[in-house]
Every structure is written in C-alpha cells, then in structure tokens.
Design a protein that fits this description.
The chain is of the alpha+beta class and 672 residues long. The longest helix is centred in the middle third of the chain and has 21 residues, at 311-331.
C-alpha cells in the first residue's frame, strides 16, 4: 500500500515552531506596457506550436503534497511546456501556454506579459498560462507567500527557478512568433466516462441541483473533453496536423507522494499517447505538440483501482484518455477553418480591496481545519481522524460569521498571527476567451464539478443575451495563478477537504460566476481588452533551492546493468549507475537517455510499437543518488531482449557520451 498524505500544507504552526520559513524578501515590479503595433493585417489565419523542456535539476521541493512531498531527485517523465500561438485575420493574437506544473502563476504571467509586450504584438490579455496540476513538479514560483511557503515540503520563492521558467517560456513564445504559418483550426468536444470518479461524493450530493441522490461517484463528474486542433501549411501548400490543446477534468494525483521523481503524472500519458497516435495515423515526420490542462477537476480523481495508486495505474487511465483525445482530434478532420474568431479579456481583481460583485461577497481568507485532513485518496495519517479536521465536521456554533461552517486551522485568533491576510493570494487574474464557438473561463482556482456548472450557467445566460444559443462553455482551473479551491455553498457547508481549502468562503463560486459573465459580456461587445493596474508589484519571501554548479568531473560507470523485479505495484526495470557532473551542470532539460539497438552493424534508437524508447516518453528515468552519482532506469522492458542492446547516455559539457550494454551480451563498455 502506498503512503497516504494530504494534498496541501499541514499545520502552519510548523513554520513558527521550526523557523523553517525564515527567508529574505525580494521585490518585483512589472510595468503594464502597451504591446507593439500589430503587423500589417495578413489575409489568413496564422499559427505556430512549440514545445520546450522545463525539467529542472534535482533538489527542488515539489508542490502539491506539501509537508509529505519529497525533494525532486530526478525525473520519470519530463516536465514540458507547450506554446500555441494563433493570430487571426485582422485581430489580436492568442497565445496559450500549457505547462506541466501545479498551476499558473500571477507573477510569471506578469513577467512574461511585460517582456513580450515590449518586443511583440502580444498584449497581456492575449497571454494564457494553463497548467495540468501535476503534484510532482517544483513549486516556489507563485505570486504569493502562502503557496510558496506551504504548497511544498520546503518554503520560499526561488528566483533562479522562476527566471529559468520565465526565460524558457519567453524563448518558446518568440520562436513560435518567428515561425508563424497559415493555419486552420477546429474546436470539438466529447464525453469521456469511466476513467474518473468524484472523490468527494457527499458534498456533491448535498447540492440542491442534484435531484437524484443515487448518483454514483462515477457519474458525479464533468465528462467533457474539449480540444482545439491546429493544422499548419507546409512548403508544399498542404495543411498538416501540427498540434492541439485540450482541457479535461482529472486531478494530477494518480501517483503518490512517496517518490522523488519529477513527472507530469497522468497527464504525461494523456498528452503523449494522443500525440503519438496522431503522428502515426497522419504519417507525420515529427510528433505533434499536444498539451492538456485542467477543466473543473476540484473533486475529480483518476479512477484507479483501489490500493494501486502509482505509475502503472496512471498509465492505464492516462493512455485511455489520450486515445479519446486522438479520436476527437480525428473527428475534426472536416471541421478545420481559417476564419474562427479569437478574442480574450483579462481582469485583475484585488479581492481585499474589491470583495463584492453584485450580491456575491468574499470573506477575508482563512485556511480551514479540514484542509489538513487531505483529500480522500491521499489522507493525512492520524490527522484525518482528529475532531474538526476529519471531513464532514462543520462548525455548528457561531456560524453567523462570513466563513460560516469553517473551523479555522489553528484557530480564528491564532491563524491571522501566523498567516497575515496579505500573505494569501488576493490579486486574482480572471480571464475569458473565445475560440470559434467555444467560450472559456480561465480561473486561478481548483473548481469543483458543480461550482463549474454554476459558473457555466451564468456565462450561458450572457451568451443568450448576446443572441448566442449553442456555444460550448469551458471552465478551466488553475490558470494564471493559484488561489486554492472553489466549492458551491452547499459543498462548503459540509467542510470536506475542498471546502476547507476554499479560502474566501461560501460565496466564491457566485463571485467568480459574476466576474466571468461580466468579462464575457464585455469581450463580446468590445473585443479583446485588459483591466490591469499600471504596474504589478510583488514582495516575496525567497530562498534558493536550485543547486550550485561545480568543477567538471570525468564520467565513469559505477555498476553495470542489472534487472530488478520489485514487488507490485512497482514496475520491473533495468538499472545502471554512473558518476557524472554535479546536478546543476547536467542540463536535465536536454535529452539524456536513449535505448539503442545494433542493426546492420550500426547503432540506432530502439522503437517499440513505432515509438522511440528514450527519455521523452514514459519509461526511461534518471535518479540522483547524491553527490555526482546517478542511476538510469529502464522501466517495463521487454521480457526477451535483443542480443545487442545498450543504454546511450548523451554527452554533457566536455564529457563524451557513455554507452552501457544491457542484457547478456558480450559488448564491452565503450566511450564515444
């Protein structure tokens, strides 16, 4: 059985008692500058896609499982970011970045928006930072102390990691801009059932809209998979598939907290499975760029078999969803067009200064005691059973306060002393998009299924008022920042994990619904626009986790290949150990490992099912063992291996490649 831990921070008192959060402070200011003038209007829709590796070196804390997480010690699947750049005829561009991270970030959005506006036609409202909410990527890049200090197993904003991310993303966007080509796009949607389940069914059933109280956890989900396909024109004049971005509701918690690997969780299998199938089906030379990110996933988990949380089950679920994404991609063959409207609107709301809109009013932020219990499939040991913390024990006295049924974590008198209000994320980036006949709300919250439907209902009313009857409405979580959860008032009243993590109280869903509807209406009437302050300022407690470099070191093999068959549910693997550069000098964002086979006297990459066996897929991992020592693992190898097979470790710095034989071959260790 895997260890079961909470999805977020435990008692904030730890910072006070242990002094673990003593850090320096950094101040950032990003001016809201006007974008460069639009180029002369082109006659066609233009588009581009780019993929960039954002895998950092070992040593950074991982965000999502908080206290119970491990520091990153290598990677099982790489962390990627994908850029989708669309510039319509006579309109402003739309740039959507999907990342294998816990969430977007308001400071990262501000930094990128400021940089890009100075050198391109990309205005802030046209930049979207979407995320897949994996719980196995570093945190420490958020725009508030609250999640920099408490989302990971160690706290503080890491400026080196932040600059690495900002630089990689900026370069990828500008490469996409320089590579624009005539494009055609299509938007589609299909339902996916049986691969997700509601992990918090009792609160879901408490909603008055749910009239059938026999609804099962497999029905109490958002099944909609929405996909935007992008085809680009080749030199021959033919349009060919280049990529797609998709939104779906599933938590990035298919793999537990008891691993040090960085990985994209279930989303790695969704994105890669769909991309590989598109490549093979359409006969593409290169694998297309496919990025997938969250929809209304707040109470939705992968439908893994009980007791088997881990890589094998995440692969089973993710692969099946990826197959559905490919089928939807294929369904759009005859719907591609170059005249779909693209619009966007962005608003920053400081909810400490502006907590009201219409009849909805937010409370001052507070972390609920139920937050410490953890979500159902990742419970906190022992803490789960404590009074007031155990899910479903709402406050029954003094409930006439703004936070109502919430028991405050640490107490209503002590929590504000340890967690000042200003440390909570309170400047929300709220965004709406139009892509053809689809309308998107991009929100910096984990949105539950029913709160998403409430937001969707308000947006549909706005569309109806504008004479639009049948548009697709998509509500996307954890975009452009991170502010915890949003539940409905009924769900909040039961104070399960999701309600305890709804920081701003029971009116959060109506507040977001009103803003999203208002933004959507303004976008339909005015076109693309932004409502931002003159500058976006951040003061953050900082701490460096990024490792320091060191003098070069010669490579050498420490242990030849060994087959290891662990107990289930861990998968079998071959392991090789070697000594190399210090972690900071290993360029973990560059390809490192490939399985090669000798054929016709030449070494070439091994393919299985038409897919290369390298570290861009699922099964080649690198683990840092400490110092300058590493282990390379090849998971799920064939039962019977070809005679001449080797692991090829790419050069690093001045160090040559290293080739290590696998299986019972007579190959000698070679340097190349």
């Amino acid at each position: 059985m895997p260890r079961l831990f909470p999805l977020s921070f435990c008692l904030p008192l730890l910072c006070l008692v242990l002094g673990a959060c003593s850090t320096a402070r950094l101040d950032y200011r990003f001016a809201t500058v006007a974008a460069k003038p639009m180029p002369a209007q082109q006659a066609v829709l233009l588009g581009a896609v780019q993929e960039v590796d954002i895998t950092p070196p070992p040593g950074l804390p991982k965000a999502g499982f908080s206290t119970w997480a491990e520091n990153g010690d290598g990677f099982r699947t790489r962390l990627k970011a994908r850029v989708f750049y669309l510039r319509p005829k006579g309109g402003q561009p739309l740039v959507l970045i999907q990342s294998d991270l816990l969430a977007g970030s308001e400071i990262l959005q501000a930094a990128l928006a400021s940089r890009l506006a100075r050198v391109s036609e990309i205005a802030p409202q046209n930049l979207v930072l979407a995320a897949n909410h994996t719980h196995a990527a570093p945190g420490q890049y958020f725009g508030s102390d609250f999640y920099n200090l408490h989302a990971s197993n160690a706290g503080g904003f890491d400026p080196h990691w932040f600059e690495f991310l900002a630089g990689r993303l900026e370069q990828a966007v500008l490469r996409a801009r320089d590579g624009l080509r005539p494009a055609r796009i299509a938007v589609g949607q299909r339902e996916v059932w049986g691969l997700t389940r509601n992990r918090s069914l009792e609160p879901y059933l408490a909603n008055p809209e749910v009239t059938d109280k026999t609804t099962t956890l497999f029905q109490a989900i958002n099944p909609d998979l929405t996909l935007v396909r992008i085809d680009l024109q080749e030199a021959s004049g033919t349009f060919r598939p280049a990529g797609a971005f998709a939104s779906f509701s599933i938590h990035g918690t298919g793999i537990g907290s008891d691993t040090g690997f960085y990985h994209a969780d279930v989303w790695a299998y969704i994105a890669n499975e769909a991309a590989w199938r598109v490549q093979q089906h359409y006969g593409l030379t290169d694998k297309p760029v496919l990025g997938a990110f969250e929809a209304t996933h707040g109470d939705v988990a992968p439908n893994e078999r009980p007791g088997q949380i881990g890589y094998a089950e995440a692969r089973r679920v993710g692969t099946a969803i990826g197959q559905q994404a490919f089928a939807l991609f294929n369904d759009l063959d005859k719907q591609l067009r170059d005249d779909l409207p693209l619009r966007s609107a962005l608003r920053e709301v400081d909810v400490l200064a502006r907590p009201e809109i219409g009849t909805a009013r937010l409370c001052k932020p507070a972390a609920g005691a139920a937050l410490a219990a953890g979500a159902h499939e990742h419970r906190s040991p022992l803490i789960w059973y404590l009074p007031f913390i155990h899910p479903g024990q709402p406050r029954t006295f003094f409930t006439d306060t703004c936070q109502g049924a919430k028991h405050w974590l640490g107490g209503a008198w002590l929590q504000p002393l340890i967690l000042p209000t200003e440390q909570f994320p309170h400047r929300l980036l709220l965004q709406t998009l139009q892509i053809g006949d689809s309308y998107w709300a991009m929100l910096p919250f984990e949105v539950t299924t029913m709160s998403g439907r409430q937001i969707e209902t308000r947006m549909r009313a706005t569309l109806k008022d504008a004479g639009i009857q049948n548009g697709m409405v998509v509500v996307s979580s954890v975009a452009n920042g991170y502010t915890g959860y949003v539940t409905t008032s009924a769900e909040y009243g039961l104070q399960h994990y999701e309600g305890g993590h709804t920081l701003y109280g029971p009116q959060t869903a109506p507040f977001l619904a009103a803003h999203s509807a208002e933004l959507l209406g303004g976008m339909l009437a005015r076109g693309s626009f932004a409502e931002l302050p003159h500058s976006r300022d951040f003061s953050l407690a900082s701490r460096r986790f990024w490792p320091q470099g060191d003098a070069p070191s010669p490579r050498r093999l420490l242990r030849p290949a060994q087959r290891i068959t662990p107990s289930a549910p861990e998968e079998p693997y071959w392991e090789i150990r070697w000594r190399d550069q210090a972690p900071a000098d290993m360029a973990f964002d560059q390809p490192l490992l490939t399985i090669e086979i000798q054929q016709g006297g030449r070494w070439q990459p091994l393919h299985r099912g038409g897919r290369p066996e390298d570290d861009q897929g699922f099964d080649l991992a690198v683990q840092w063992l400490g110092g300058r020592d590493y282990a390379a693992r090849w998971y799920n190898p064939p039962t019977s291996l070809p005679e001449r097979l080797r692991l090829f470790i790419s050069p690093r710095g001045e160090q040559p490649a290293l080739a290590v034989p696998i299986a019972d071959s007579d190959l000698e260790l070679t340097d190349q």
